[in-house]
Amino acid sequence: NFYYITILRDPVSRYLSEWRHVQRGATWKASLHVCDGRSPTTEELPSCYTGDDWSGCSLQEFMDCPYNLANNRQVRMLSDLSLVGCYNLSVMPEEQRNKVLLDSAKENLKRMAFFGLTEFQRKTQYLFEKTFNMNFISPFTQYNSTRASSVEIDEQTQRRIEALNFLDMELYDYAKDLFLQRYQYMRQKEHQEARRKRQEQRKILRAKQAHLRERGENGSSTDYIGNVERW
């Protein structure tokens, strides 16, 4: 059996992290972006840069490229692109395309046996362990200091990144709500199971105590009758 799982991240932090990654020379050349059996044409998915990579690009340049796959990456990677004609943007109006992608991403996320959020490391670990009945040998660590957190941006830049990733922003709100619901459900289930076990243990203890009292009473009667006979 195969289970699809994923870890989602705050869209702004994720976007900044990818920019820093690309800035250091990372590329996605090995990714074929195959959809419906074929890769997109250069017209469907133009490149944001010329040359071997996009190293040294500024955040402004990164945001200015309209073909940047960093935009709404989480929605795109969770959705069924074949529903919107893959990378062919002329299949349907943009507003309709965005709605179909977002709905598809939400549905696929909901169907996953497990997903986590980087901002809730301990809760993510707890849900994984309870879902798959497995335990990690050490607790997850909440790292709040990342490459993305080291990038200082002003409010205007923050708003623009949010606008560029508006689908991811909505997906993340949905994911956070669903994640916390699943966490609360697992916690309640754990409490109910613990309460059931305590009740069972109390029943067993009461039964043992009753049995011991019965034995004690029977033993006292036998001793009394024996003494009477001797008297």
Could you characterize the architecture of this molecule?
InterPro entries: Heparan_SO4-6-sulfoTrfase, P-loop_NTPase, Sulfotransferase. The protein starts with a strand and ends with a helix. The mean pLDDT is 91. Helix 4 (94-111) packs parallel to helix 7 and helix 6 packs across helix 7 (166-230). It has one domain (5-193). By secondary structure, it is mainly α. The chain has helices at residues 11-23, 59-64, 73-78, 94-111, 121-132, 155-164, 166-230, and strands spanning 5-8, 114-117.
What is this entry, summarized?
With 231 residues, the protein is mostly helical. The chain contains seven helices and two strands. It has one domain (5-193).
The string of secondary-structure elements, in order, is EHHHHEHHH
Overall strand count: 2
Radius of gyration: 30 Å
Q: What is the residue-averaged pLDDT?
A: 91
Shape: elongated
* Spatial sequence of strands, sheet with the most strands: 1-2
Share of β-strand residues:
under 5%
User: By helix and strand content, what is the structural category?
Assistant: mainly alpha
Counting DSSP H or I runs of 4 or more residues, the number of helices is: 7
Fraction of helical residues: 55-70%
Q: State the end-to-end distance.
A: 78 Å
Show unreliable segments: none
Any idea how many domains? 1
Major β-sheet annotation: 2 strands, parallel
Membrane topology: Single-pass type II membrane protein
GO molecular function, one term: heparan sulfate 6-sulfotransferase activity
Enzyme class: transferase
Pfam families: Sulfotransfer_2
